[in-house]
Amino acid sequence: MATGAITEYSSGLTASSGLRGICLGPDGNRWACAFSTNKIIKITSGGTITEYAIPTGTGPYRICSDGTRLWATCNGNNYLISITTAGTITEYNLGASKGPRSLVVGPDGNLWVAFQTASTIAKVVTSAGSVSSVTEYATTTGSAGPFGLCSDGTNLWATLNTVSKITKITTAGSVTEYSTTTGSAGPFDCCLGPDGNVWFTEQASGINQIAKITSGGTVTEYASVSADPQGIAAVNGELWVVLSSANKIGRYATSGSQIAEYTITTGSSSSRFITAAGSDLWFTESSGNKLSVIGGALTTTKTVAVPVFGPATQTVAVAVPVVADVTLGSLSSDYFGRVSGTATVPTGCTSLKVYRSTSSGGTYVDITSNCAISGSAPSITFTDKRPAYGSQAVALNATGYYKVAGVFTSPVGPVSSYSSGVSTYDREQVERQQWTKVHAEMAVQATRENSSHLSYAYPGRWLVNAAYIAASYTDLTTEALTDLDTWWTFVKTQINADNLFIAGGYSSSFYTAHHSELIVYVCACARLLRERLSSNGTATTLAADMISKADAMGVALIDLSRDTVTARGYSADWPVSVSAATAWTGSTSTALGTIRKPTSGATRMYRNINPSGGTTGSTEPTWPTTTRGIVTDGTVYWQECTTDSPRWTAGETIQVGDIRRPLTPISITRSGTVTSGSRNVTGLSTTSDLVVGMTVSSSLGTITSILSSTSVQVSATSGVSTTLSLTFTAPSTYRALNAGTTHASTEPTWPATLGATVTDNGITWKETGVSAASVSYVTRGNSSPYTPSGSGTKIGDELARVACAFAVLYTDADATHFYTGGTKRSTAATVITDHLKLAGALQVGDGALAQDVQGYQAYDSLYASFTLHLSAIALNELGSSFEESLSPSVSAALRWLTAYYGTEPAISNAGSAGHPTGSIVMAEMAWRSAAYSVAGQQNPIDTLRYTSALWPSTTYNQAGYAAGTVGTDVNFLAMGGLPSAFNLPVTVSQAVAVAIKGTRTTTASVAVAVTGSATTRTKTQLVAVRVEGVGITKTQPVAVRIYGGPSPASIATPTSLTSTQAGTSSLSSAQSGNSSLVPSSAQPIS
Fold first, then answer.
1. Distance, CA of 666 to CA of 680 (rounded, Å)
2. Is the pTM of this model over 0.70?
3. Residue 22 has pLDDT above 90, yes or no
4. Which DSSP letter does residue 495 get?
5. Any residues with CB less than 8 A from the CB of 449 and at least 6 apart, and which?
6. Lower CB count within 10 Å: N or C terminus of the chain?
7. Is the peptide bond before 1054 cis (omega within 30 degrees of 0)?
8. Contact of 818 with 806, CB cutoff 8 Å
């Protein structure tokens, strides 16, 4: 088709259709409105017309696509209709006196419609072709007659035809109006221009202007040359306008100057609206009753030198088609800070050029090299991997603006309109800023000697900080390795000759949990260095030393004395209901875990979470009315706990792993004899149905041991000698082994035996108690750290620490005592299994509480999260089949955590009421995140961790900084490093850019054959060639369309391209078709 040539189509179109709006549909066809015949028209690129009658609506006027279906206004009777690409029409009555005209999909994804009669702009919320709601926003000026409507990617813009104004509408409905420079100009249609401004036509008689308005409201007008400008569209960096009464199509530059006019073939066609479709522009002829296309207008011909098959270089004409606009959709940002967008592109577009700016009207720089680009027509996706770096960098929580241009088989196409997105998450920005503070502390010897850095397992967390940064950011590798080497040398001084870690913050004492956790961190460092810095000599030397020491620490740990521990689900004195709970009293000593209710109007109950117990105040507190809410009462911290340990309910839907306790507690009553000063109960008729952990009435505590068939030992010493009628209550909880619905009315008969099962309407419940004989002692004391203290490691997170330490050694080939063939491997397997079983058994009420056999150690969010995190690492290392029962335990606990803490990640450990107000324990967020990943559940935490809202101003600092201080949180980088070191899976569904480094081999020469006669080769045929000529400063491989050229005889034998040609062609000798060679750096021919 010659430049500017117009083709008209009318075959299959009902006479006097009164054509109005037209758009490109999601199916690639053009769709138009037949105002007079009440039909929707579909026309293919080849001109085939199909009509679809509208059942009720009359006067269809404008039409648009939402990417899935079409939407059209029916101006005649105030209807809005949706049309599928198969032609199915659904109608919606908008109500009287609306006068719907133009419509567009807004930046918020909703449909927006101009109501000319009502003088409002309406937001229409839709779902799958149905209208959910309509909200109208009135123009400031009454009877303004809003007509044209478009989106600039941030706001909506409408022409106010009767009052000669342009209005801007935010997606929240805020309206701002701007007057045209010329009065009574009759602003008609509008569109977003390629320069980022909104362009509109002024079609009032005698005005004959086009105009633009900036985002700030500045209007500039330009003469349209010919009369009656109506429809307007932007394509290929230019504006195209229907000059209706002049019977022409006008072409304008963004400077406002006219480039050309093209006369419409049919005279007095009364053309109305225009739209871009592929490489052409389509418009409607109302009186001419035709759907027409102006094609070829976007093609220019350049003469370039093309080396073809033959003895010499010949000059041929190469038509370089600049294919039509690409359209950029809305943007999204993931928790790494990467910004992604998808462009709708025409056939022939092979890739994208991506441009970024910090303001909508600012300078846009080419950041294509910074992007991962994938997909093919009609959708190509890009991901800006580092928005915060390079020119026009987008700061955290700031808005970035992006434009794209299509890369076709020849030059780059026109730049799209911009889309904007807020980079609310940026992992790299946050980690680099945090490392600056960590490095400052690690570089100071005095800091390392601070007890707050040495207590607990903090030395290991500082180590992981440095190893993670060294492995993650090449420009920081040397700095971080220097800190790591210095710190590792220092930490080894805290590990004694017997390879036991003596924590300085605990009066130089040994603690099993701290020792175990340090093993995990040291192993993590070794893996980061060994696997990601294998070519760095300093890193590999450090890795070898660290894993050797971790292996020795594991041997020392496994050789310590171990205990037999039985864990049951919950404290049996947990109230059956709120009414059964004990009422609060003032000035009362209150132990950890005590449950009370308000003195009047009680609908909730509360648990003391102060590890030290405390004394209630003299005045009753104002009780929180939110789940897990906390209030301080004297020195007691009450936390709402009404639903923390759920009981069995009839007809309840149950998921695998859900935990319930009996509605009716399991109780056994029999006589027993107690002796003053003794903890033994004798004279029982039998002990066969009694188990360790049962609560005993008469203030005797719990059963700690079954002594014989007639006697047990309890936790409390009797003050009298007598025979009593005793009630033994089992603190059992039960885990669902399969999903289902509980019985509609009858509670099952619950077994009290550890691990026993019962069936409930198809659900199999398993008693969650566990007894294990390999649990490591908690040992203390600098002089003799090897003497058991008398109490085992019975808290879930401590159990998980031991299991995790052995699990990471068990799977590390350099941990010679624990890997295949190692002398400690078998023992480690037993220890891992027992500790994970116990940790799982201590997750009660879907993770709400965990208490040991004495019922004194309460759980909450922080420790539950840490238990899950360590269990997750162990499971990931060993595989879920190693301990199958733990997987549903982890999943159930995560469901509980999400329900109670999904919107309150700031809640920390049992002493949280004593922490700085508003503090955030970042470690907890990272711990829980790892567990979500291993459990294969969607992760609600990682989208919070790297936001400016949470980091770093509200970070709780473990090193002693005041609340709100931007300090150094040792947990932040450490808990990002552990999942990285142990390759925990990522469950957040986001675009991921993968960089592959290595040697790439390319074929130096490429053979390309073109076959066919001179006649057939006048058709466009793609071949891969090298173009050298005007406007190209260096040799670039490009794909072009060849017209004409030498006869077939002279190219019968394929000839290689120049030796500098990179890439490979899929064409072999005497083969026709497309080459696989695509532009490596597309460049326009000028």
1. 22
2. no
3. yes
4. B
5. none
6. C
7. no
8. yes
Cross-sheet strand order for the sheet of 209-213: 187-192, 198-202, 209-213, 219-223
Confidence bin at 195 (pLDDT 50/70/90): confident
**DSSP string computed for 807-847:** HHHHT-TT-TTTSTT-TTHHHHHHHHHHHHHHHHHT-BTTT
Q: Please, what is the end-to-end C-alpha distance for the chain in angstroms? A: 21
State the amino acid at position 1073 in one-letter form: G
Q: What are φ and ψ of residue 711, in 5° steps? A: -145, 150
Closest CA to 2 of 347, 236, 299, 322: 299
CA neighbor of 465 nearest in space, from 492, 432, 494: 432
pLDDT band at residue 339 using 50, 70 and 90 as cut-offs: confident
The string of DSSP codes covering 518-558 is HHHHHHHHHHHHHHH-TT-HHHHHHHHHHHHHHHHHHHHHH
174 φψ region: left (φ > 0), alpha (ψ -120 to 50), beta (else): beta
Tell me: pLDDT of 554 over 90: yes
Angle of helix 537-558 relative to helix 477-492, nearest 10 degrees? 30
Handedness of CA 907, 913, 918, 919 (dihedral sign): negative
Cβ–Cβ under 8 Å, residues 416 and 404: yes
Nearest by Cα to 877 from 985, 781, 964, 788: 985
For residue 784, count other CB atoms closer than 10 A to its CB: 9
Other C-beta atoms lying within 10 Å of the C-beta of residue 653: 10
211: three-class secondary structure by DSSP = strand
- The mean pLDDT value of the chain amounts to 74
Place of tokens 């991901």: 383
* Per-residue pLDDT tens digits for 697-749: 888 887 877 899 999 998 889 999 999 999 998 777 888 888 899 999 999 99
- The 3-state DSSP class for residue 571 equals coil
- Among 44-53, 410-419, 1067-1076, the range scoring the smallest mean pLDDT is 1067-1076
Other beta carbons within 10 Å of 1016: 11
Q: Mean pLDDT, to the nearest integer, of 857-872?
A: 62
Give SS3 for 529. helix
Question: Which of 558, 493, 484, 565 is CA-nearest to residue 521?
Answer: 484
Q: Residue 841 — very low, low, confident or very high, per pLDDT cuts 50/70/90?
A: low
How many alpha carbons lie under 13 Å from residue 779 in its C-beta half-sphere? 23
For residue 1052, the one-letter residue type is A
Q: Which residue has the higher pLDDT, 189 or 337?
A: 189
Tally of CB atoms within 10 A around 826:
10
Contact 56, 79 (CB under 8 A): yes
CA distances from 885 to 291, 752, 770, 803 (A): 68, 19, 11, 15
Q: 3-state SS string over 392-414?
A: CCCCCCCEEEEEEEEECCCCEEE
- The pLDDT assigned to 722 comes to 94
Please confirm whether the linkage preceding 646 is cis (ω < 30° from 0): no
pLDDT, mean of residues 938-951: 50
Average pLDDT for residues 244-257, to the nearest whole number? 88
At 273, the amino acid letter reads F
Q: Measured between alpha carbons, how far is 951 from 113 in angstroms, rounded to an integer?
A: 41
Burial of 489 (0-12, 13-18, 19+ CB in 10 A): exposed
CA-based nearest residue to 589, from 611, 612, 613, 605? 613
- Tokens 């027993």 correspond to 672
Judge whether 207 and 181 are in contact, CB under 8 Å: no
Round to whole Å and give the CA distance between 717 and 493. Answer: 45
Model pLDDT for residues 629-662, shown as the tens digit of each residue: 778 899 888 878 787 667 899 999 998 777 788 8
**156 and 186 Cβ atoms separated by less than 8 Å:** no
DSSP symbol at 947: B
How far, CA to CA in Å, does 661 sit from each of 219, 509, 644, 732? 71, 39, 11, 7
Of residues 698 and 568, the one with the higher pLDDT is 698
CA 850 to each of CA 287, 838, 908: distance values in angstroms, whole numbers, following the listed order: 80, 10, 16
380 or 296, which is more confident: 380
